[in-house]
Amino acid sequence: MKQQSLALHETMEVHEMLNLKTVSMTTSKMMEGVVFDQDLKALLEKDVQQSIGAINDLQRLLKKAPKIE
Predict the structure, then answer these.
(1) What range defines the domain where residue 54 resides?
(2) pLDDT, tens digit, 9 for 90 and up, residues 15-43
(3) What highest taxon heads this organism's lineage (predicted)?
(4) Would residue 1 count as lying in a domain?
(5) How far from 19 is each of 12, 51, 58, 66, CA to CA, in Å?
(6) Can you tell me the distance from the alpha carbon of 40 to that of 21, in angstroms, rounded to the nearest whole number?
(7) In this structure, is the dihedral angle defined by the CA atoms of residues 33, 22, 47 and 62, taken in order, positive or negative?
């Protein structure tokens, strides 16, 4: 069976989501170092872990993107 690939506009949208998630994860990780409240620090760490999972999923999706030659 032929593997399905993403359309060009879908590839662009996945790239945009990946960029947004990466920036969001980086911001949360940086904020962990300056936050003193332990509850907030725990929420930021949870956000980082969830973002890592989402980034991995988006990267897997991008493997289905068409190759431009």
Answers:
(1) 8-62
(2) 999 999 999 999 999 999 999 999 999 99
(3) Bacteria
(4) no
(5) 11, 11, 10, 19
(6) 19
(7) negative
The rounded distance, in Å, linking the Cα atoms of 52 and 46 is 10
Task: Tell me the C-alpha distance between 67 and 24, whole Å.
Answer: 28
* Residue 21, in any domain of the structure: yes
Give the pLDDT of residue 2.
59
Cβ-proximal residues to 5 (8 Å cutoff; 6+ apart), any chain: 64, 65, 66
Q: What is the rounded average pLDDT of the residues 1-25?
A: 87
Q: Are the C-beta atoms of residues 31 and 44 closer than 8 Å to each other? A: yes
Residue 38 φ/ψ, nearest 5 degrees:
-70, -35
